[in-house]
Every structure is written in C-alpha cells, then in structure tokens.
Amino acid sequence: MVLRLLMRYFANNEQLIQRMADSYPMRRAAQLVVSLMYRSKSLAREQGLHEMTPERFKSFVNMFKNNIKQELEGVKQELKDKKK
What we know:
Blueprint: H1 2-12, H2 14-21, H3 24-47, H4 54-83
C-alpha cells in the first residue's frame, strides 16, 4: 500500500520526472534502445525477415521450437550420463 502511494507520488511529480529524463543513465538507456532497434531492423533486412509471410513465419517458429527441444533433450541426456 505504501509503495503504491510512493510510486503514484513519484509518477505525478513533474519536476522529478524531468530531472530523471535529463539524467545521464536515462539518456544512455534511451540511446541503447534506439541503437538496438536500428541494429535489429538492419539485421532483419539482411536476412529477409522483413518480407516474411505468415506461412514462412510459422515454419520459422516451428523450426526454432524443434531446435530448442533437441537441445534440451541433448542437455538432459548429458546430465543423465554425468550422473552414471
């Protein structure tokens, strides 16, 4: 309850919000987010992911799921072998 009141006070305190927005950590975090966004966008264009059809996306997701399952099973098998 007290935490909720404090958070509401901080969210409605315009001077505090402005000071936080002008701080170096907040500006740096915003720069990193924008940088990651542009990098992922260019990477998607290079790999042709921006022109992905729904069917191609589904096959990509299924392939990803299968790879994850195979890796998990491999790790489980390795753990079983270590215990023996």
